[in-house]
Each structure stands twice: as structure tokens, then as C-alpha cells.
Amino acid sequence: MTKKDAAAPVDDAALLGAAQVRELAERLEVRPTKQWGQNFVVDANTVRKIVRVAGVGPKDVVVEVGPGLGSLTLALLAVVKHVTAVEVDPRLAGALEETVRSLQPDNAGKLRLVAADALTVTKLPGPDPTALVANLPYNISVPVVLSFLQHFPSIERVLVMVQLEVAERLAAKPGSKVYGVPSLKAAWYADVELAGRVGRNVFWPAPNVDSGLVSLRRRKPPKTTASREDVFRCIDAAFLQRRKSLRGALASWAGSPDAAEQALVAAGIDPRTRGEQLDITAFSRIAEARPAGVGPAEPRARRLGHST
Q1: Residue 144 and residue 219: Cα distance in Å, rounded?
Q2: Cα torsion for 127, 130, 135, 140, to the nearest 10°?
Q3: Checking phi first, is residue 131 left (phi over 0); if not, alpha (psi -120 to 50) or beta?
Q4: How far apart are the first and last CA of the chain?
Q5: Using one digit for the tens of pLDDT, what is the confidence trace for 1-52?
Q6: Long-range contacts formed by 241-246: CB under 8 A, 24+ apart
Q7: 3-state DSSP call for residue 14?
Q8: From start to end of the chain, where are the E strands?
Q9: Which end of the chain is more exposed for a tag (fewer CB within 10 A), N or C?
Q10: How does pLDDT run across 209-257, given as a tens digit for each residue?
């Protein structure tokens, strides 16, 4: 987005403040639940920052997951072409359009509401989204990001606020202690970086952890004859026992330790290497080299970042 396309800062009167958030929640008899990971943003400057860092503007069609009471939704509507909001809580979904009509009547027509669990969404009404911008519930953040990148190839960039630990994992690079399944699967789709930190006091109720902003800019996946599913299965297997060398960790995936070693050597990887040392391109080469005739190897433990 160029400076010419940048929108003017959104006036406080068009956004939700802390008192309004609590008043609205009380009127709707909404009490934030751990089940849906609800922590509502009550600081106008924070939602302005999210929109600014996301780099969205008048040409963008944004999908927002978990709009809650509408704090970020209002900040987005003021600057983008269209917002599709996906909300699982029926009470919040029912009130969102009314909130927008009350505070930003001129922008009410730019909002489309989808009452659904974001993890089940594979199609959206209206124009194709160009960006995903959201304050994501902590318990579904990685699966949601991966799922939307998979199902909506029109999404060019993502800016999400998530638990800081999750943000650091998504943005981690090979060799980092927190590098793993989420880092690699996100890297299949995009260049990922930590775009900022957010304190606890901007939320109601205040969470027990800090949050982070993660920026993802889509790029082409690695050139490989292996499918995304094959590469992701290889990643899952490598980190199921991350302390092992890849020769051991990929034994079940390849059919045997010797077969794993053959695949690794064919991919130009030292069999003594651990998964945390390799980038997505290396895992793509390993998946390509998997011996023919070996059935799909699914990890026995479900890991953060799942196999989407």
C-alpha cells in the first residue's frame, strides 16, 4: 500500500472504548469464555496499530476471524473495501451488525457476517479475500492461519494477534529452540516475521500471557514434486520425536531407519541432522525422496499446527 492509498486515522468516536466494550458485553449478557478463547480488545490505539501494521487499504477485502464485540472490525471497516467477519458465538454474531450501524452507519454495507466455526470454513460469500487480519483466540490460532492460507489462495497477507509464545513459534527460524511444526507449515505458504508485541492491559479480561503480532506475506511454495500433504506428514514425523536424529525420527514415515537414511542422503541431508535444523525447502526434498510403496505415515500424537 502506498502513502497515497493510506487512510486517515480512525476517530475514537467510530471505535469501541473500554467502557463501551463492557457496557455492550453486559447488555448482551456475554461473559468471555475460555472455551472460545475470548479476550476482547478495549484499546483503540491497539486496533489502529493492527490495521496499520497489516498494511491494508481501500482496495482490500479482509476476512476477520473472531470479531467478538467489534473492536477490530470497526477499525478495519473505516479503511478497507470490505470485511467478512467469521464469528462462532451466536450472541456476538447477532450483535455485530447493530454495533457497526450504530458507530459507523456509512460503512455498514461493507460488512458481511458469517456465523460459523472458523476451523470449518472453506468458502466465503462475496468477493475473494486479499488479507486475513484478526485477534485470534489462542486455542485455535495456528490451525486457523494454516487453514485460511490453504483454502483461500487469494489471501496475499496475514496479520494476526496471538499469544506471544505462538507468535514466536510461527516466526521462528531453523536452529531456534522454538522452531518446529508451526514454523515450517507457515513457511510453506509465506514469509513470516514477528511484527510487534502487545501487553496484557489492552484486553478485557486481561490474559495471563502477553501477545504478539505475526505478519505473513504469501509467496510460492517450494518447487517440489511432493504434495503439500506429503511434506507436512514428513514434518509431523520429524518433530514427533524432535530429540532424535532424522534417521530415527523418520523411520516409521519412510518404512525403516535404513529407508529414512536413503531418503535423507538422496535429499542431500546428513542422516544425523535433527529436524529443527532444516528449512521448508529441505523438508520438501526429503518428502520427494521417500521410498515408493510406503503408505501414508500419520503421526500418533496431535501436535500444535496440525496437519492441514
Answers
A1: 18
A2: 90
A3: beta
A4: 30
A5: 554 444 556 666 678 777 787 787 788 877 665 444 567 888 889 999 999 9
A6: 242/180, 242/274, 242/275, 242/276, 243/274, 244/274, 245/271, 245/272, 245/273, 245/274, 246/271, 246/272, 246/273, 246/274, 246/275, 246/286
A7: helix
A8: 40-41, 61-65, 82-87, 111-115, 131-135, 157-163, 190-198, 203-204, 211-218
A9: N
A10: 899 999 999 999 999 999 999 999 999 999 998 889 999 999 999 999 9
The answer to whether the beta carbons of residues 36 and 55 sit under 8 Å apart is no
Closest listed residue to residue 255, CA positions, set 302, 202, 296, 305 = 296
User: How far is it, in rounded angstroms, from Cα 118 to Cα 42?
Assistant: 23
Residue 182 preceded by cis peptide, ω within 30: no
The whole-angstrom separation of Cα 88 and Cα 12 is: 27
Contact 143, 305 (CB under 8 A): yes
Inter-axis angle of helices 141-151 and 164-171, nearest 10:
40
- Determine the 3-state secondary structure of 63 from DSSP: strand
pTM: 0.88
Beta strand pairing call for 211-218 and 190-198: antiparallel
Q: Which residues contact 229 (CB under 8 A, 6 or more apart)?
A: 307
> What are the cell numbers at 235?
514434518
Strand-pairing partners, residue 40, are 204
The residue written with cell numbers 499446527 in the block is: 305
Nine cell digits for residue 152: 483461500
Cα(194)–Cα(166) distance, integer angstroms: 10
Cell 509465506 locates to: 190
